[in-house]
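User: Sequence in, structure out. Go.
Assistant: Echoing your sequence, followed by the structure tokens.
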Amino acid sequence: MPLLASIPSPSQGVWDLGPLPIRAYALCIVLGVIVAVWIGERRWRARGGAAGTITDLAVWAVPFGLVGGRLYHVITDWQLYFGSGAPNRPIDALFIWKGGLGIWGAIALGALGVWIACRRRGISFSAVADTLAPAVAVAQAIGRWGNYFNQELFGGPTDLPWALRIDPGRPGTVPGAATYHPAFLYESLWDLGLAGLLVLLGRRFNLRHGRLFALYVAGYTLGRFWIEGLRVDPAHHILGLRLNQWTSVVVFLAALAYFWLTRNKTGEEPLGVTSEPGEPGDGGEVENPDPAHASDQADEPGEREERDERDEPDVAEAHAVHNGEAGQR
């Protein structure tokens, strides 16, 4: 049956700007980070945090995330770099610009970087995590388009109208098949939908103390499990499931457990800001003092004058006492 429509793949994913190669994969990741920081800043300020905080935290999150993503890739695909017959040299494991990033490692070490920065600034890590949950999902949706330019992260053969054309000879292609499920597109759309759902749930239920981030983790892993099952590129399998599917199951259960254990958790989540006098603020000074210690500013003018008269000593009595003491001398 002839195809009525399909999605063409880009002819190239790298453009040479003189001696500098411009990689579409890297551009998608950078764009995702920029958008995530922008969304995070807006949400953080709306929560009462100081402007620029999320940008400062990103300075820690991005390098930690890149290292974590690369480590996960190298550890789970070690045969690509080590051992006899490996297609790459061991030193190539350090060349992060050659592709190969695992989202699990990127999120884990990126979160570690944010945690360190939050500790240094006296900011609640859980408050930051909840703030960034929808932003991270959007960043992932944008970053997945880097896989499109690399002609990777596709599913099995299909003749659906939105099928993706892949050049023959790519890892995972099937002889005689030209179009495949665009798994990267499925995940990108899933992440965008998840981001919108998180915003709605956060507003509706006021989820705090990391519970919104836990829902992000659970939602992402739920989608990743079935999308991962569509993929046909080489991967490690355990009991018939791909390694990333098992990772999704474990992380999904951990996220649900955290959400349940913290369901009744309350208390202040400091945002690292001090309120100006008379202004409310999370983690700042108390706006109103204890009523039991209220100053006379709350008194009516008549009451204040009456109290002042009551507190002042009698002038005539004071003169009498003074004269008596002087006579005794």
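User: And one key feature?
Assistant: Residues 276-329 have pLDDT under 50 and may be disordered.
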